[in-house]
Amino acid sequence: MNTAAAPTSTPVAFTAPADEAALIASLPSGFRWGVATSAYQIEGAIDVDGRTPSIWDTFCRAPGAIDNGDTGDIACEHYTRMPADVALIKDLGLDTYRFSVSWPRVQPHGTGPVNPSGIAFYDRLVDELLAQGIDPWVTLYHWDLPQELEDAGGWPVRDTAYRFADYSMLVFDALSDRVDTWTTLNEPWCSAMLGYAYGVHAPGRKEYPAAVAAVHHLLLGHGLATERLREAATRPIDLGITLNAATAYPASDAEPDLEAARRADGMGARLYLEPLAHGRYPADVIADLAAGGVEIPVQEGDLATISAPIDVLGINYYFSQKFTGFGEDGRTVGDDGLPISRTLPLNKPRTAMDWEIVPEGFTDLLVRISRDYPDLPMVVTENGSAFEDVADENGYVADEGRSAYFSSHLAAVASAIQQGADIRGYLAWSLLDNFEWAYGYDKRFGIVRVDYDTQARIPKQSALYLRDLAQQHRNR
User: Which PANTHER family match (predicted)?
Assistant: First the structure.
């Protein structure tokens, strides 16, 4: 492989804050090193072996929903190339692989018995991982709701939570003899808000009260599944959930700015953390929602179910933001009578997603969670970046920017650990370039380049960087 440096089209004006030796020395023994993917983004084979459509199959066919009209129909052909992809993880010396299970592949239509052909794929995947010495980490839901359940109302409808628990048991029954770590949901904020409030993700609805109902029913589904999986377990397992969270900085000490940051933190983090950890929704968030005429549809016993004990909290982090409560005209209340909240730039370098690179926000977030929720061990279940990768004649990408991103954010994790945060691993997003939701295939997050014309896989510089870090940590 040609490892000569190739220029990136987007200069990256930041460097890692710690050298590799210091970084490795600061991470605890037993620290996980891994990668993450999701089913719809890599598997393809959408109509193979009994799989039925998900909301993303439907959304991809809505005119203008996805950049370039892309779909996940083929994606990375992981469904047929899985053994080679597992071999890639092995070659990179990583010990953990977090993947999601496709609900409509395992339980077509979202109801009824398990689909033997569908679950057989994940059965083979788990066996392949274990044979290569890689720990399988299952995520039960990464946004691919069966379309029939959306037709019945989707996550805003309470019954979907019960359907999720039923589906979860089908997967658990098949794989629990070999899988130790289980995540119920990936990023319920995205499922609820991007899918039902803002309409930029499947199913593409713009109904804010429905989105708030979806938040509650996603969390209820998590709790129901957690209770049932725990009861059914015949050996020790770790159960958890993954949240996408960030630090919300106020633009100043002015009260409107402090309030804007509080509201952002309330809807983005505490709306999920408080019921999971303490069995209650934050009173200030309930009041904020009520001011807009929205209520959380809690029924008796729901919060006890949602707060069923978990063993690990997954944290996905990409960026943090600064908030102001002042409009550009200086007003603090909008035409709708509600307080103004808007973001201001932190004046940091940006990725190809136009996301600011804020590793210090990562440290602040992890330390804050460890302080406010001290009984929740954490694993970084996603962290990564998209850049304008430029491949050389051999398909190799010298992605210095992505390597520096990983280094700076691993240093941020190490800083949080030094401040007392219980963080037990780091899973990079993502193993492969893949279908990046509404952005289609234009945005590349992979540490392994995928040539979409040939499906060839070529590890990037960042993959080799993570490989070397993991090896140094293991050998220290």
Answer: GLYCOSYL HYDROLASE (PTHR10353), LP05116P (PTHR10353:SF36)
